[in-house]
Amino acid sequence: MSPSNDMSTFQATLASSRHIIAIAGAGLSAASGIPTFRGAGGIWRKYDAISVASPEGFKKDPSLIWQFYHYRRETALKAQPNAAHFALATFSLPWVRHTIAPGSTFTLITQNVDGLSTRAMEQTQRARPAPSAIVSQDEQPSLLEMHGRLFDVRCTSNSCGHVEFNTASPICEALSGTEKLIEAGVQDPEIPVEQLPRCSKCNALARPGVVWFHEIPKHLGVIRKLVDEADLCIVVGTSSTVYPAAGYASQVQRHGGKIAVFNLERSEGDEEADFLFLGPCEDTLPRALGLTN
């Protein structure tokens, strides 16, 4: 049986759901100008993933990796959350969500490292503070960044391991302007290691604080519990190819939960979903969540 694209049927399912999770991928941030990975024009069509997103790649060529992540940092700093970010952020507010799905819980599990979901939630909470008569009973987090954060900077020294949140632009002088070379596809300059970002505590070489290939994603214990409890899994902007996140929706379905996929185009596993909404998620998601007409 093919997935349904009927908004009213999905909204009835949403209203009756009690434990809702959303799994977000790069497509969530595409409308904000953040390049995706595997789609047309995606990052992995230009760069070998292991070369720029693995501990082995960093050990071999920290100059290349820091230029790549400097480019991503600069892109994210210029970007703004889009309507899909704000829809999920608004739905995360219990005093809003309980008018749509009474008594429900919600957690956004994002694979993205750009920080746009965090910014959307912070802005939404300021714009729509809780009514004084309402006290949230939610115990679980509303956002889990399972692949870390682009603006975390981590010391490579095992004896130190310091991590700090750093949005400096540029993060070090030697990287200034290299984002333009990355964008233009020009040969990356070789930057001496001693000029790359250093740990602010011990001065050892620092690395981007994201989770790379061959590393363990964050919050896995909490996520497993949420997946086990979920009766609705909303999948947004992901090709469902990177594990463990790619397996979460099927786990929800195996224990009787429903799956709703919001993607720009068809992707692997769509036929197994209960609902499929194709098109820009910044258009489809706010409508599906009952936040716009």
Automatic annotation (TrEMBL):
Compartments where found: Mitochondrion
Pfam families in UniProt: SIR2
CC cofactor note: Binds 1 zinc ion per subunit.
Main location: mitochondrion
All residue ranges annotated as the Deacetylase sirtuin-type domain in the record: 1-293
GO cellular component terms, A-Z: mitochondrion; nucleus
GO MF annotation terms: histone deacetylase activity, NAD-dependent; NAD+ binding; protein-glutaryllysine deglutarylase activity; protein-malonyllysine demalonylase activity; protein-succinyllysine desuccinylase activity; zinc ion binding
Keyword tags: Metal-binding, Mitochondrion, NAD, Transferase, Zinc
E.C. numbers: 2.3.1.-
Amino acids binding Zn(2+): 155, 160, 199, 202
Active site, per annotation: 147 (proton acceptor)
Span of the signal peptide: none
Binding site for NAD(+): 25-44, 111-114, 237-239, 263-265, 281
Annotated positions binding substrate: 69, 72
Matching Gene3D superfamilies: SIR2/SIRT2 'Small Domain, TPP-binding domain
Required co-factors: Zn(2+)
Catalyzed chemical reaction(s): N(6)-malonyl-L-lysyl-[protein] + NAD(+) + H2O = 2''-O-malonyl-ADP-D-ribose + nicotinamide + L-lysyl-[protein]; N(6)-glutaryl-L-lysyl-[protein] + NAD(+) + H2O = 2''-O-glutaryl-ADP-D-ribose + nicotinamide + L-lysyl-[protein]; N(6)-succinyl-L-lysyl-[protein] + NAD(+) + H2O = 2''-O-succinyl-ADP-D-ribose + nicotinamide + L-lysyl-[protein]
Function field: NAD-dependent lysine demalonylase, desuccinylase and deglutarylase that specifically removes malonyl, succinyl and glutaryl groups on target proteins. Has weak NAD-dependent protein deacetylase activity; however this activity may not be physiologically relevant in vivo.
PANTHER family attached to this UniProt entry: NAD-DEPENDENT PROTEIN DEACYLASE SIRTUIN-5, MITOCHONDRIAL-RELATED
Protein family: Belongs to the sirtuin family. Class III subfamily.
Domain notes: In contrast to class I sirtuins, class III sirtuins have only weak deacetylase activity. Difference in substrate specificity is probably due to a larger hydrophobic pocket with 2 residues (Tyr-69 and Arg-72) that bind to malonylated and succinylated substrates and define the specificity.
Protein name per Swiss-Prot or TrEMBL: NAD-dependent protein deacylase
Organism: Hypsizygus marmoreus (White beech mushroom)
